[in-house]
């Protein structure tokens, strides 16, 4: 009987104490469950919920999941700032630059621009969802933004998008191609409800 059990302990208290003692004998370090890079993969969703991760996708690769969990507290601490937005984007594997309203071509308060740098194969619906959700969940509620995707394809470029109702997104894709480009370019839009997606493609030969 351990020192934590009183002399008048009931049978169930003694049994629980004995069971707990067996667990302690294993000397398991529970602190590993609270670290994003040591927590077992199957427990990451619970850790993500614990640190208030705003957007989670079970299909993400393991490293991305761990990065999102690791940066969640930073995103929440500085939420509403450019630093928070860039941290959120970095966590989901998006390299981006932010232009605040006074740096825009037409300065307008409560507006900003996100320039995301991607490769040809990255231009997918998953990338749009990751970028959009990372920005929306870390920006100020009063701010509006324009998303510009800057890609450098090698052969063929396929651009496709589908959006949800009552959302507005604008995607500008700039192609910087120093050599002759003789492959087809495919640009597609999908509309649903009141949603609008704008895709501008610029090819420089």
Automatic annotation (TrEMBL):
It holds the Pfam family Tail_P2_I. It comes from Piscirickettsia litoralis. The lineage of its organism: Bacteria, Pseudomonadati, Pseudomonadota, Gammaproteobacteria, Thiotrichales. InterPro entries: Tail_protein_I. This is Phage tail protein I. It comes from the Bacteria.
């Amino acid at each position: 009987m351990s020192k934590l059990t009183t002399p008048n302990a009931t049978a169930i208290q003694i049994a629980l104490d004995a069971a707990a003692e067996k667990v302690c004998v294993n000397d398991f370090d529970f602190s590993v469950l609270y670290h994003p890079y040591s927590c077992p993969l199957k427990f990451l969703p619970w850790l993500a919920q614990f640190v208030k991760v705003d957007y989670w996708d079970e299909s993400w690769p393991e490293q991305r999941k761990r990065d999102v969990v690791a940066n969640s507290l930073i995103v929440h601490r500085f939420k509403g700032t450019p630093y928070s937005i860039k941290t959120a984007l970095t966590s989901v594997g998006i390299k981006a630059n932010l232009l605040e309203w006074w740096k825009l071509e037409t300065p307008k308060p409560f507006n900003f621009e996100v320039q995301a740098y991607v490769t040809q194969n990255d231009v997918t619906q998953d990338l749009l969802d990751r970028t959009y959700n990372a920005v929306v969940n870390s920006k100020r509620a009063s701010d509006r933004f324009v998303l510009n995707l800057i890609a450098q394809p090698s052969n063929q470029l396929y651009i496709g998008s589908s959006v949800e109702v009552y959302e507005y997104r604008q995607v500008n894709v700039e192609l910087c191609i120093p050599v002759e480009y003789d492959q087809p370019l495919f640009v597609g839009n999908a509309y649903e409800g009141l949603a609008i997606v704008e895709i501008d493609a610029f090819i420089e030969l």
